[in-house]
Design a protein that fits this description.
The protein is of the alpha/beta class and 252 residues long. The protein is built from eight helices and seven strands, in the order ααβαβαββαββαβαα.
Length: 252
């Protein structure tokens, strides 16, 4: 094992590190949560990463996304993330897909090639399609629930979706998955009650974004813009990555 992973090997062992090196993980959604998932998986020694997102880095990403810098604003998120992975370890295989995952684009991906899938996208239709297709071929998947309007990074847990509370997105996903015959799904979610964003500031952000933002296509067409911080999405992403690594090496 390369020296850069020696501190991790002290905890996991050589066999586990070799298993991580042989693993291919797909991360769908390279934003506040997904960006930190990619970061942690790369630094853990996962040998192959597929990065899927059609968005570009925007100014509003600077407060929370690890790939967001003034120098990367306007650039495709998957390209920026891939460059960062290669800076961490040039030997990691990285494939990028400049597309949003939807039922219409699902055919572009063969889920049997993945050892694990991380769902860090924010549309219900896309998340449902990801979960259904992963379950169809038996590929493990972890799905990130809502992180918006939260302030407590210690409130995130990894659990089955059937045990979630306080999360509107988890409630919707749980209901829709049951309709599809899926009763269990590993998720990372927050037990914290969501806050209400400032309505006046929200309206101003909507106005400014319509005129100025070069990225985040479609983000500001929602009925509500979620507030976010530097530490909440990061915590969710790191916790999710930790769960994936532990499961890949048989310690989950």
């Amino acid at each position: 094992m390369k020296e850069q992973y020696s501190r991790t090997e002290l905890l996991l062992g050589a066999e586990a590190m070799a298993r991580l090196r042989r693993s291919r993980v797909a991360v769908f959604g390279i934003g506040g949560v997904g960006g930190y998932v990619v970061e942690a998986l790369a630094r853990s020694g996962v040998g192959a990463l597929d990065l899927i997102d059609d968005d570009t880095v925007s100014l509003t990403n600077l407060n929370r996304q690890i790939i967001a810098l003034h120098s990367t604003v306007g650039r495709p998120k998957v390209e920026v993330a891939a460059e960062r992975v290669k800076e961490i370890d040039p030997e990691i295989q990285v494939r990028t897909y400049r597309t949003f995952y939807t039922p219409e684009t699902a055919g572009l991906f063969d889920f049997t090639q993945y050892d694990y899938i991380v769902d860090a996208i924010d549309t219900v239709t896309g998340k449902l399609a990801l979960v259904e297709n992963a379950f169809r071929v038996g590929t493990p998947i972890l799905s990130a629930m809502g992180t918006g309007n939260k302030l407590d990074p210690t409130a995130f847990v990894v659990t089955d979706i059937s045990k979630t509370t306080m999360c509107p997105l988890a409630r919707i996903m749980r209901k829709e998955l049951r309709k599809r015959g899926i009763n269990h799904l590993k998720v990372v979610y927050s037990t914290e009650q969501a806050m209400e964003p400032n309505a006046e500031m929200e309206a101003e952000i909507l106005r400014q974004s319509a005129e100025e933002e070069p990225g985040d296509r479609g983000t500001f067409t929602r009925r509500q813009i979620p507030g976010s911080t530097a530490f909440v999405p990061a915590a969710a992403g790191l916790i999710a990555a930790g769960a994936v690594v532990r499961e890949l090496v048989g310690k989950g």
